Amino acid sequence: MQTTFPRLLRDHAKQRPRAPAMREKAYGIWQTTSWGEMLSLVRALACGLHEAGLRRGEHLVVIGANRPRLYATMLAAQSLGAIAVPLYQDAVAGECVFPINNAEVRLCVVEDQEQVDKMLEIRAQCPQLTRIWYDDPRGLRNYDQPGLQSMDMLAEAGRAFERAHPGFFDAEVDAGSPEDVAAMFFTSGTTGNPKGVVHLHRTLLDRANAGARFDKLGPHDEVLAYLPPAWVGQNIFSYAQWLVTGYVVNCPESSGTVSIDMKEVGPTYYFAPPRVFESLLTSVMIRMEDAGAFKRRMFHAFMDLARRVGPDLMDGKPVGALDRLKYRLGDWLVYGPLRNNLGMSRVRVAYTAGEAIGPDLFSFYRSIGVNLKQLYGSTETAVFVCLQPDNEARADTVGVPCEGVEIKLSDTGEILVRSRGLLKEYYKNPQATAEVLDAEGWYHTSDAGFIDASGHLKIIDRVKDVGRLKGGAHDGAMFAPKYVENKLKFFSHIKEVVAFGDGRDRVCVMLNIDFDAVGNWAERRNLPYAGYTDLAGKPEVYELMQGCVEQVNADLSRDERLAGSQISRFLVLHKELDADDGELTRTNKVRRGFIGEKYGVLVDALYADKREQFIETQVKFEDGRTGSVSATLQIRDAKTFVPVKAAA
User: Fold this and answer.
1) Which domains, ranges and CATH numbers included, belong to the chain?
2) Is the pTM of this model over 0.70?
3) 140: buried, middle or exposed (CB in 10 Å: 19+, 13-18, 0-12)?
4) Can you give the residue ranges of the AMP-dependent synthetase/ligase domain (predicted)?
């Protein structure tokens, strides 16, 4: 796509200046920003940033939730030929030091007091960081720090500059090229420092356009922007595709109001990782268990029908007239109200990605009339590599290569991608760039997978994580930890899993319970508990977990390649894995190596056939304080099954 983000904004503002571009909920009321108003704001901020010293090719850090003025800031930087660098708003201060120093950032724009405090805390480590502007002034009235100002002051300075130089902004936008660097996204850093993924206007807009054409997106669509803008997926869905299609982006008031705001907005195009779809379903099932007997019977009866015929109706397959009539009645009584309660009554296309989604969870949404599909991509590929056509959505694949993408498999089974959306480079890291981009333009994804008979891509695990068992009854058997972890996470009572086994004689796992789901399960059984640690250690909860583990073992026994990956022993961790404690990335991926070291005493206990193990763990609270959590954890053996031989 031969244009730039600021030029697209200018086009929308010229063609339909009064049409809504973004909405933001503030103090319970939705505030609308039109395309014309957005351009006016971007113009003022760009002129203000220029006067403050931002120049072409420099980096500007933006930290905060999805807010119209922060989106405008990124557009303002790009209008000047500068590079927007969004960082995760929930990152602790220390995590911001490397990206800011790596990108030599002098200027940053943040959302509120929390983010200002972080920037002031690290200033000594980032001496080049001279200017900080904030959007929300609450709590900042008495702050008196050099270089700290409100965005209102930045915009006012920009308007004054614009009055003195009326043609400056448009000249800067016209000087921009699709080959200019538009943004840099830092990877989650599962090992070592994060890497800055450099993307051009062309690469981001090409992939945004390919996805928009695939699902026929246009100005009539509405999205809810609630995931971190620093994550490339959110950036594509509510920034790049927003400017490509001209649809309306809605920003919730806070993370705590997302479900309410979603019902009010009624998005037509929706993205969420599997854990969000799982959480929504869990909340529904919890409420349904508390409903009256008649409502429960009606719900389960119609859901049985939906599971049987709903996916076929969604895929356009033939369904009997009587079943169609029953489904229509179920839609009136159950499915329609349920979609409305989930905020999905208008969803035309819904995507999930990032982790595998359970087949039951996937079919649940499709059975009630939500067009849930999967996609495959990464930060380095600007998201869109594979997409599922409407009538080919399956839980066990991630779709077919989309427009402009080639896929092939290496001799080791690694997925290689060639696309118009590939990264330019890893910033200041030519060695890492050379490791993933070869001379023929193939990007090495580090994912292991294969293409099935229908042309759909299936993901097994990360190439580096696929290992082998050593010794014991399954010596030499393949071990795919993520595959095992995901099968366990398909259960609504399990939130996180860490599997070990490479180079060992058997597979052992550590589990995190889903506190809400298991808490509700315990309350319905009159099982008292005093917090997460107490609940996680209950014998009844261990029995519940054991049932899940053994069901997964039974499933694995039927997979000829992975039957040796059945779980021999497990324990339930005494605390939830947390990004603030370094156990998860900011995109909620398990840092398996870090956890293996941190909880080495538990790993040793699992493989030493101990029945219990005491552990004390330091934790970090949201306000920066530290404390400790200790417990004596039970360790259980799990039943394994004789592998089922494939029929001759």
Assistant:
1) 5-200 (3.40.50.12780), 464-637 (3.30.300.30)
2) yes
3) middle
4) 10-427
